[in-house]
Amino acid sequence: MNSPEKTHYLSFELTQDHQMIRESVRDFTERYIAPDVIQRDQEKNFPHEIIKMLADQGLLGIYHDEKYGGAGFDTVSFCLAIEEIARWDASIALTVASHTSLASGHIALAGNHHQKEKYLTPLAKGEKLGAWCLTEPGTGSDASDLKTTAVKNGNHWMLNGTKTFITQGSVGHIYVVLARTDPEKGTKGISAFIVERDWNGVEPGKSIHKLGMNTSDTSEVIFESVKVQEENLLGELNHGFVDTMKVLDGGRIGIGALSVGIARGALEESMKYARERKQFGKSIGDFQAIEHKMVNMAVDIEAARLMVHRAAWNKDQQKPFTKEASMAKLFASEMAERATLEAIQIHGGYGYTKEYHVERFLRDVKLMTIGEGTSEIQRLIIAREI
Q1: CA atoms within 13 A on the CB side of 93
Q2: Model confidence pLDDT, tens digit, residues 292-313
Q3: Is 342 a catalytic residue?
Q4: Which of 13, 355, 372, 385 is catalytic?
Q5: Pairwise CA distance, residues 329 & 259, whole Å
Q6: For residues 38, 261, 61 and 213, what is the CA-based torsion angle, rounded to 10 degrees?
Q7: Could you tell me where the DSSP H helices lie in the chain?
Q8: In this predicted model, which residue has the larger pLDDT, 37 or 142?
Q9: Long-range contacts of range 117-122, CB-CB < 8 Å, 24 or more positions apart?
């Protein structure tokens, strides 16, 4: 029998770059994000100053090409950064993840050199914020059922429609908008366009008040007879839906990392509380029932992180990652829901109050099983892939 060929693909060690990113983002988060997180959640104001500081750190373009203003790291680095931010503030992590992987990600995927130079560069540098406009009031899991239209008129397109649940919808500067360009062709008649917020006819609509993610901006965006030049068609005509599915695959990796961060926060806060809280003459962490809850949380978090990093690694190696991304997103998001519920149980009555972090984790985590494809949709994708 011949010995198997040796490879160096399977490694559970982080590179020096990965360790540096994890430690630097952890330090930044503990210094500037953690101290006022409860107050920000209650006031529900978008954290412009913190986002600017994250941009200065290169985190709003962490895996984009240095040629276009990015930091040039890989998707695993992105996951490490998102996890560290989400451990304390999932809203800020969502802002970074959606900006990087959706709006900027679509331009990086499908844009030509001119579009990347003009739009991706300021996005990757964090000079401008991006918003990805897919969902509409009448659509949800059926992302192809678009009512927004773009009609060709000479050397430009006329864009009309309303988008909803748009992250960075009212604070974004550059929108990537999906619209129907050939109504007779279904999913093969959808195109993407780059639209600037200050163009005539572009108007952020009503803000959406949510269960959680209170400092992440979410709103409608209305496009009324917006004149879009031909050069702002993103990717091939009628190829927008195909590119959208690829963008969503990448976005799901970010949601997986965000879920791991929330769950880790739930575990670490529970461990801290279990050491401090005394009942029946000893710390509640000494009771086996509490130990087992925290053990289950820890095991689930490790498993989810490995799945997320595997999907990220596949993406970086330009290997297929649709199945891996959906599996990671599905498992990590549902795991994080369980972890936050257990954290509240461990905290008892105090876990139900806004004095402790864990009630916020529970409110924030629910989006993870809904956004960028519900758990039900992930199961459909995985079934198709296997």
Answers
A1: 36
A2: 999 999 999 999 999 999 999 9
A3: no
A4: 372
A5: 8
A6: -40
A7: 16-28, 37-43, 48-56, 75-86, 90-98, 104-110, 113-115, 121-125, 240-276, 288-316, 322-347, 358-365, 375-385
A8: 37
A9: 117/68, 119/174, 119/194, 120/64, 120/68, 120/69, 120/70, 121/68, 121/69, 122/69, 122/173, 122/174
